[in-house]
Design a protein that fits this description.
heterodimer, A: mainly alpha, about 0% strand, rod-shaped, B: mainly alpha, Four Helix Bundle (Hemerythrin (Met), subunit A), 8 helices, globular
Amino acid sequence: MMSLGPHAAFIVSAYAAALVIVMALIAWVALDRRYLTRMLEELEAQGITRRRTARP
Amino acid sequence: MTMMTAVTLIDLANPSRFLALTNRLSPWLAAATCLAFAVGLSGAYFAPDDYQQGATVKIMFIHVPAAWLGLFGWLLMSVAGLGTLVWRHPLADVAAKAAAPLGAAFTLMCLITGSLWGRPMWGTYWVWDARLTSELVLLLMYLGVIALWRTIDEPTRAARIVAVLTLVGAINIPIIKFSVDWWNTLHQPASVLRVGGSTIHPTILTPLIVMLIAFTLLFVTLHLGAMRNEIVRRRVRSLLMMQASAAAGS
């Protein structure tokens, strides 16, 4: 096991913070994609497309 | 510019073709990012301690790439800003809007990891020296740009205003880079990119460069994903407007 010396808490905290930020960015892109894809599918299912809008 | 390059750029101006390209590229970019991080992190793990910093030098393997991406994000937004104002490229404002949260996140990462390195090395988490202050200003500028995008509903109008603000704010990039040369700062001078070559020993420099590549690949992968989302968001927005106008007309 690697020894991080007397400042191990600072090193581990820095890597943990970086991991949290990277995971938050990945989650932001992935969840936004899922939400927008669902919105687009719902609108298209209602017959609303860029070429024609369904009228009741 | 060759005819081939011109044709490729024109092709990319079409959002549908851009989406198809990102869908093909994204898995390869994600795989390359994972591979680069595996190599970079194992190199960081086995890198020797620094003769002055001890094991805290390991923080540099994330701090330096985060600092680079904070600057890279703003440079990317500046080029995109030119694309919006001068060439009115349809994807330029999409690229700028997608880059802002990424740049802000990596600037925040730079500030946090820098503080966690500074406490054991300098005896303080924070000092108002030129490098740290200009980096904090960069984060505030990113937050301002994100707020502006959210404030103005009409994307094209928002893009023009943000482009002007971004190009004005680009003056902070050389200030950040050269602050350690222009002023007497607690932050050490440049040691990776400097005239006369790097001052870092190859056993630490090599994994640092691999980590720089890994983080840059991560940024590009996330940026393409965020650009794709922004294009779809604009489609959803135009469909919702069509739905609203159809409802008003019926």
